[in-house]
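Q: What does the predicted 3D structure of RNA-directed DNA polymerase, eukaryota look like?
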Amino acid sequence: MWDPNVFKRTSIWCSDNYVIMQGKWMHSVEDYYLINVYGPQHQPEKSNLWEFLRSFILNHVGNTILFGDLNEVRCEEERIGSSFSRNDAEIFNAFIHDASLIDLPMGGRRFTWMNKTGSKLSKLDRFLISNNVFLAHPNMQVTVLEKVWSDHNPILLHCMNSDFGPTPFKLFHSWFDRNDFDDVVKEAWSGFSNADGGPLLSLNGKVKGLKSRLKLWFSQTKATEVSGVMVAEASVVTTDRLVNNPPHPI
């Protein structure tokens, strides 16, 4: 179930092992493909499912989010107390690679399934996303939640926005070697006037003014240097073309 005011479905594909929904989030331009998977437990059904999903993802342009009980692990460390099939894991990893999916790391717990006695544990559930989803949401995370009724732990996909406050001012040692650095500092420091307030307010105002002036100076200096590099690169390209393709004599 979903809120139609947030996600508008346009198409759907279903089988015993997957439900694929195509649609758009509110304000999004590109299509999203939400692929809910229940992986089979045996071969060749596993390989057939991975091949179908690989082909589907490569033939449908959009943002892919694949999730669910995939009934497969990627390495031996994702199983405890049960047999590990290296061949099945290699086929599964090849599917993830060929479909250009990213396996999001999980927080909260290492495993998502446990039997009744607690003697067998596996990481069977996960979120796999396409690269463009990751670029659009770099703070996306997966958290394993508490288990309630099922023998699987639910997993939650969410975005975590961290605010560490204003970006601190950085003064680089290389600035001291620039010819105009001293002049910029002297001009900014002497140009500040404080009509009101005591010495502390005056000092605080001067430091703030100096920081702002240095930021502006560095931005302008960097822009000039980048422009010079671009001109030099263009000159090199032009020279290289003349060397490799000299003009025909008249």
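A (community wiki): The structure tokens above were generated from the sequence. The mean pLDDT is 85. The two ends are 75 Å apart (CA to CA).
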